[in-house]
Design goal:
Layout (H helix, E strand, L loop, with lengths): L7 E6 L4 H11 L4 E7 L11 H4 L9 E2 L3 H4 L4 E4 L6 H11 L2 E4 L6 H10 L4 E4 L5 H17 L4 E8 L9 H14 L3 H4 E2 L14 E7 L5 E9 L2 E9 L3 H14 L5 E3 L1 H4 L6
Parallel strand pairs: 1-2, 1-4, 2-3, 4-5, 5-6, 6-12, 7-9, 8-9
Antiparallel strand pairs: 7-10, 10-11
Helix pairs in contact: 1-9, 4-5, 6-7
Length: 275
């Protein structure tokens, strides 16, 4: 691994996707980091392409490849926005290398989460449903609001994303739901309602509802609604550019570089964990 005062060498997994290209672009404008590799699935149409060209920067000499393992031997960290099923294998590789692993992928199963947690015994993993400063601050505010307002206020979470997104509710919506549940001291899995249809009956007290909208090219919109007696409080975040997620992921990687192995969140990175 490189000395701490040199540029952090980062590999981008999912380099051909929207977020992968944004990461490559953001890296070129960020001091202290350097693109050390770009990876895509074996059947991807961008294998062999120049990562800089894909990101709209012009050639940077980093070719998109399918085999990540050799790259990690010469890297300080990996940033991935891929598919849930891909993350566990990547986590095992970063654990073996003892490097930083920033996970922006969402929609993991309980089994996949367990593999990631085990890998964090050796890797420095930062995992978040959303990498932006604004959303993580929103989560802290939601937790505090839920604690203050109590059960008299019904919690509903509404999110909208582009028509290519494959998981619902979004990782960010679930993160906000967990924040609300933590504020109330309850288990989200017991109180989450992920869809309503037909004769559902009256709303159960304490439930945290989720609604997911998909359409167009929406980057990401999330609202947490606290509906109480004769008043409603709404906390909203609207993402206008994927670069906010890319910059957050780079900040997470740089923060984790000097940390002990473990599983961290963006709340840790931003100092919001205790709010």
């Amino acid at each position: 691994m490189a000395a701490a005062n040199s540029d952090m060498r980062l590999v981008v997994a999912g380099a051909g996707g929207r977020m992968g290209r944004a990461l490559v672009h953001a890296m070129a404008a960020t001091r202290g980091v350097r693109l050390a590799g770009a990876v895509e699935a074996l059947d991807s149409a961008v294998i062999g392409r120049d990562a800089g060209e894909l990101a709209g920067l012009g050639r940077n000499g980093v070719e998109v490849v399918s085999d990540v393992a050799p790259l990690l031997k010469q890297a300080d960290g990996l940033i991935e926005f891929t598919l849930p099923a891909v993350t566990p294998a990547l986590a095992e590789l970063t654990a073996a290398a003892g490097i930083v692993h920033v996970i922006g992928t969402t929609g993991h199963s309980a089994e996949e989460e367990a593999v990631i947690a085990k890998a964090a015994n050796r890797a420095r993993i930062v995992k978040s449903g959303n990498m932006s400063l604004g959303v993580n601050l929103l989560a802290a505010l939601v937790k505090r609001a839920a604690r203050t307002l109590g059960d008299d206020y019904d919690v509903e979470i509404l999110e909208m994303h582009h028509n290519k997104k494959i998981d619902a509710p979004s990782g960010t919506a679930l993160m906000l739901g967990r924040a609300a549940a933590a504020g109330r001291g309850i288990d989200l899995d017991r109180y989450a309602v992920r869809g309503r249809d037909g004769m559902t009956g009256p709303r159960r007290a304490g439930d945290i509802g989720f609604a997911a909208l998909r359409g167009g090219t929406v980057v990401g919109e999330h609202s947490v609604i606290f509906a109480g007696p004769a008043e409603r409080i709404e906390l909203t975040h609207r993402a206008e550019d994927r670069m906010i997620f890319a910059r957050g992921a780079l900040r997470a990687a740089l923060w984790a570089r000097g940390k002990k192995p473990g599983l961290y969140s963006m709340a840790d990175v931003l100092g919001l964990a205790d709010i």
